[in-house]
Amino acid sequence: MTRSNVAVVQKYFQAYTDKDRAAIEAVVDEAFRFSSPRDNRIDRATYFRRCWKVSEAIVGRKTVHVLADDDCVFITYELAFTSGRTSRNTEIITLRNGKIVDVEVYFGWSIPHEAPEGGFVESARA
Question: Which of 61, 68, 82, 106 gets the highest tally of CB atoms within 10 A of its CB?
Answer without folding.
Answer: 68
